[in-house]
Specification:
Length: about 525
């Protein structure tokens, strides 16, 4: 087609997913363009620039594996890279693979409508530009639509309001300031220690305490780096077929209650000393058995009590009433010890809710806090938010919003019945946020690229998930989720952090390896569960 506004594929988002998807599409010789709201690449790593922002998966694994040169050329400096380093990496990838000319920046997608007669997607941007594409691919990320609390009096407040999820590009200086942080998920927990070092006073407004383990971050041990460069491909392959997307590390875990209390303590302590999310794999049943999970809670409570000097503050910091890890486990650097500083105050807003913002700060039902800056670290409309922010309409003008009104419905988290030639990268119903995201992104992009190649080779115009396959998959995702403890916590995995959002566990917890096998079987059987025409 010679229409200058037509592409074979339009991809939304230039984060890890969008960049790799674009690379694959261009490799396949397709005309493709990425539409990106920001003025640079990076996705979530572009926006979340708050002090302390880092990945919680080791950088040697939180990076692409598809091109050996990329791995060889890039040397990560720390075990868990900071946001600026990850952003530099993604910029390097964009330049190295010459992707930038095919990315339209400062372009937010407003709507996408499937034109049944022409079998094309009509994509409209917020600036009013229109494009058409055969394939419409959402690389919009799982944590990209920020959620801010609606506090009365917000307009009255004369201080500065900051948001971890949309942090200013310039350095923010908190020296001499009274700063409030609302929210104690990963973003709050990562930023609090650094804010406390600068601010004159820091007040942390906590609604739900989170479980957290130490990162023990630091420069990468040269021997460990050497091990990865010698065994990278084999380790990555192991990761692809594993449960959570990481290579095996020692003996397979046993049930928590199958060992003595002393042995359990020893293993938890060892995992604590290693640091990081691996802690959740100390025992085999921590995600499935409340009694086993309680042993992890007891250990983690003990750590908080030993790290926080004032017992009354430690008690407030203890997560209670939900299973450990059923809300995302945080990985921190001196978070709990920060509450020993004389300039840091913890406010339990479950006991004393924030009533309003005033001209000079925040008022709870107990007292007023004078604040020069308020930082909101209040999370995201996760997993479905970004797709639903676009007015997407499939066959017969049916909107994705109406289709997902009772919760997301996808086949494999990759496609939606009624929305032909549309793909989601790490969409709801795939392992996504419960896996190493970069690994899952690569798996989805490879699958989509193979699928497009299949269509080309077989001279097929459209592919669309079947409703029956979709229904079966949605039921399976929910059934597997119900075997775990995830549904027992009010988390963003279940939509509980957004008022009015359907309460559905949105992630596939059957394991990355099992999921990969299922995706490969579908492809090998000429895309069974899909209709191609
Ligand atoms: P999270 O993990 O969703 O944390 C948000 C925090 O903000 C959490 O403590 C919330 O308490 C709190 N929150 C949310 N709304 C409010 C209101 N209205 N008032 C007070 N406190 C509130 O988001 P993050 O950005 O920290 O992390 C997201 C992911 O990014 C993380 O899991 C990593 O994968 C990277 P709640 O728990 O809802 O009571």
């Amino acid at each position: 087609m010679s229409d200058p506004s037509h592409r074979e594929a339009v991809v939304v988002g230039a984060g890890f997913a969008g960049l790799y998807m674009l690379y694959k599409l261009l490799q396949q010789g397709l005309s493709a363009e990425v539409l990106e709201a920001a003025d640079g690449v990076g996705g979530t790593w572009y926006w979340n620039r708050y002090p302390g922002a880092r990945c919680d998966v080791e950088s040697l694994q939180y990076s692409y594996s598809f091109l050996p040169e990329l791995q060889e050329e890039w040397e990560w400096s720390e075990r868990y890279a900071t946001q600026p380093e990850i952003l530099r990496y993604l910029n390097h990838v964009a330049d190295r693979l010459e992707l930038r000319p095919r990315i339209r920046f400062n372009t937010r997608v407003k709507s996408a409508t499937f034109d049944e007669a022409r079998e094309l997607w009509i994509i409209e941007t917020q600036r009013g530009e229109q494009l058409t594409a055969r394939f419409f691919i959402l690389a919009t990320g799982c944590l990209s639509i920020p959620k801010l609390p609606e506090l009365p009096g917000r307009d009255r407040y004369k201080g500065r309001i900051l948001q971890t999820s949309n942090w200013p590009h310039e350095q923010v200086d908190f020296t001499g300031q009274r700063v409030g942080v609302v929210g104690t998920g990963s973003s709050g927990i990562q930023s609090v220690p650094l804010l406390a070092q600068q601010a004159r006073e820091l007040v942390v407004f906590q609604r739900t305490p989170c479980f957290s383990v130490p990162a023990h971050n630091g420069p990468i041990d040269p021997a460990y780096r050497q091990y990865w460069s010698a065994n990278g491909p084999a380790l990555r392959e192991q990761a692809r077929t594993s449960f959570a997307g990481f290579p095996a590390n020692g003996e397979p875990p046993v049930p928590a209650l199958s060992v003595s209390a002393e042995e359990r303590q020893r293993r938890y302590e060892e995992a604590w000393q290693r640091g990081g999310l691996e802690f959740m794999g100390t025992f085999a049943d921590l995600f499935f058995d409340r009694a086993a999970n309680a042993t992890a809670i007891e250990f983690l409570h003990g750590k908080v009590r030993s790290l926080v000097q004032k017992p009354e503050v430690a008690e407030k910091l203890l997560p209670r009433g939900y299973p450990a890890f059923a809300k995302r486990l945080c990985v921190d650097s001196s978070y709990h010890a920060t509450f020993n500083r004389p300039n840091v105050t913890l406010v339990d807003i479950t006991q004393h809710p924030i009533r309003e913002m005033t001209e000079t700060g925040l008022r709870t039902d107990e007292q007023h806090y004078d604040l020069d800056t308020v930082v909101f670290a209040t999370g995201f409309d996760a997993v479905t938010g970004a797709a639903l922010a676009i007015d997407i309409r499939g066959r017969s003008g049916v909107s994705l919003r109406s289709k997902w009104v009772a919760g997301p419905r996808t086949f494999l988290g990759l496609a939606v019945a009624g929305f032909p030639n549309m793909f989601l990268i790490t969409g709801p119903g795939s392992p996504s946020v419960l896996s190493n995201m970069v690994l899952s992104i690569e798996q989805h992009v490879d699958w989509i690229a193979d699928c497009l190649e299949f269509l080309r080779r077989n001279e097929l115009d459209t592919i669309e998930a079947d409703e029956a396959a979709e229904n079966e998959w949605v039921d399976h995702v929910i059934a597997v989720g119900n075997l775990s403890l995830f549904p027992q916590a009010p988390s963003w995995y279940t939509g509980a952090n957004i008022p009015g959002k359907p309460r559905v566990f949105m992630v596939y917890f059957g394991g990355v390896g099992t999921y990969l096998q299922k995706c490969n079987e579908v492809a090998a059987a000429r895309y069974t569960g899909f209709t191609c025409a």
